[in-house]
Write a structure and sequence with these properties.
disordered N terminus; mainly alpha; about 240 residues; two-stranded antiparallel sheet; 9 helices; two-stranded antiparallel ribbon
Length: about 240
């Protein structure tokens, strides 16, 4: 047997072993039984982001500040789960085939939950706090879309970024999307001081760019911060060192 054929057979055996990690059956909960601990930790990030969004919605309905504080705290909990998933996988020395598939397609188990927790949830939080004009929502939508573009670009270009001695990327190209927790911290400060819609109002007030006040030309100047943050996330020249 040639070394080439032996290598192919070994590779085939390895592939078969990998495929057997997913156990298919007709059981109602066979999908859940294929999850590993790291997969569940990853999904909890998305749970935190989703609950934050619903808490923001509950605040808009009830005007109960408790919902707003929960909405502010949950993305931080999501960040903890985001840090933990890879560490848990290495600690357990295992990752499921299902987890590998979830980690592809823009990392459905990780990238999608990251987008929910650090893209959609902060934008909805800002809306709940008071950035609700038409132009405000344009800025917030751009923020979410740039977060998605940031994750897609990272997935495509991570192999091209220079590596250190341990094989890890030396820097991020553009702001990493979890940096949006800085915006969540700002929103928390506003809530603490009552600088929200219906109380003391958003800092900086509101500016009418065209038309009559109360129309589509209104914008809160602070919403531009979300636009600038979005631009920083998709920047090619901004390099953020990894800590």
């Amino acid at each position: 047997m040639t070394s080439g054929k032996a290598s192919k057979m070994n590779g085939a055996a390895k592939d078969t072993s990998t495929l057997r990690q997913y156990v298919d059956s007709d059981g109602h909960f066979s999908l859940v039984r294929n999850f590993r601990l790291a997969d569940l930790v990853t999904i909890m990030n998305g749970v935190c982001g989703s609950l934050s969004i619903f808490s923001s919605a509950q605040y808009l309905i009830s005007n109960d500040d408790d919902y707003l504080w929960w909405a502010l705290a949950l993305p931080v909990a999501g960040l903890m789960f985001d840090f933990m998933d890879g560490k848990v996988a290495r600690w357990r020395k295992s990752s499921s085939l299902l987890g590998q598939e979830l980690d592809s397609l823009a990392d459905l188990a990780s990238y999608l939950t990251i987008l929910i927790s650090f893209g959609v949830a902060p934008a909805v939080l800002a809306f709940a706090v008071g950035l609700r004009t038409y132009l405000d929502t344009v800025c917030l939508t751009g923020f979410i879309c740039c977060g998605l573009a940031r994750l897609a670009r990272f997935n495509a270009t991570v192999a091209l970024v220079p590596k250190d001695g341990a094989g890890k990327s030396r820097y991020f190209e553009g702001l990493p999307i979890p940096s949006s927790l800085g915006l969540v911290a700002v929103l928390s400060y506003w809530v603490r001081h009552g600088w929200v819609e219906g109380k003391d109002g958003i800092p900086g007030g509101i500016l009418t760019l065209w038309g009559q006040p109360g129309g589509r030309g209104d914008i809160h100047p602070v919403s531009v911060i979300f636009g600038l943050w979005a631009a920083a996330m998709v920047s090619k020249t901004l390099r953020v060192p990894k800590i």
